[in-house]
Amino acid sequence: MLLAMSNTTPVDYSILAARRISPLRQRMIDDMTVRNFAPNTMLAYQKQVSYFAQHFGRSPERLGAEEIRSYQIYLAKERRVSISSRTVAASALRFLYAVTLKQDRVIEMIPTPKAEYRLPVILSPGEVLRLLEAAPSFSYYMIFSTLYGTGVRVSEALHLRAFNLDSQRMMIRIEQGKGHKDRYVQLSAKLLELLRAYWRKVRPREWLFPGQDPNQPLSREAVGKAITHASQRAGLTKDTSPHSFRHAYAVHLLEAGTDLRKIQLLLGHRSLSTTARYLCLATNTVCATTSPLDLLPYPVIDPQQ
């Protein structure tokens, strides 16, 4: 939790005390709210700023450029935190000091780590089938099938409601996905049949995939644990996560000859270049390409000569 800050901004301390939120944290939350940040981004930023404050045992208001530099070195050298996590930490601190604390001079001392791009591990259709068959329950089987059958992000799947399914047009409406955008994805005949069977058995209320509290959707963490468990049961050696289904969906569509622009729309990518990264993973576009060496009219050489 962020330490309380002293300022002249009027704050309702009784409300903050009841919620156990410091004035500085509340101001940062408000700043992110008015900018319409996604809930996951807001939570990630709060965590990173909280870690920063806890590391020094002081409020970020009392910390400056030198402490930020020291903290980034600590994350990189001692903690060996991944580049993606260090990037989130840098973004959170830049937002805190630029927007909430209005200390523009400080953000010049907060470099963002150079991004690295690693190709995702792609499951084959056979491996996807094994993962589905190893699902710990019918409900998780349905979640896995929905992820693979539509290519949606796990957060988008978990926030589906029954009225999002359009069986007449065979489409699923994704409301306020990443980037606060609505879009439609395909509803295959097989997935529709499975979802109808699931509906008859489970009878969900508000959320298509409810958690232990039927008024709340299932958590991303629960799905992640279920996939890890299923992967172990299936004997898969590849690293798997909820996003593995999305990667497999995109690559398998490419290998089936689906137009890249259509895949971009289905995945909800803002840029076609993001979708184009999957081209290097599709075996029929890369590995199946004829090597120019095979086209040369050279004779076979006997190594014994």
Explained architecture:
With about 300 residues, this protein is mostly helical. About 50% of the residues lie in helices and about 5% in strands. It has 14 helices and 3 strands. The chain has a 3-stranded antiparallel β-sheet. A hairpin with a 3-residue loop joins strand 2 and strand 3. The longest helix has 18 residues. The chain is globular. The chain starts with 12 loop residues before the first helix and ends in a 29-residue tail after the last helix.
Large-scale geometry:
globular
Which ranges are low-confidence, i.e. pLDDT below 50, for 5 or more consecutive residues?
A: 1-18
Percentage of β-strand residues: under 5%
Run of helices and strands: HHHHHHHHHEEEHHHHH
Structural class: mainly alpha
* Biggest sheet: strand arrangement: 1-2-3
Q: Helix content range of the residues, please?
A: 40-55%
Give me the count of strands: 3
The largest sheet is: 3 strands, antiparallel
What is the oligomeric state here?
A: single chain
Q: Give Rg in angstroms.
A: 24 Å
Determine the number of helices (DSSP H or I, runs of at least 4 residues).
14
End-to-end gap: 76 Å
Mean pLDDT over the residues: 84
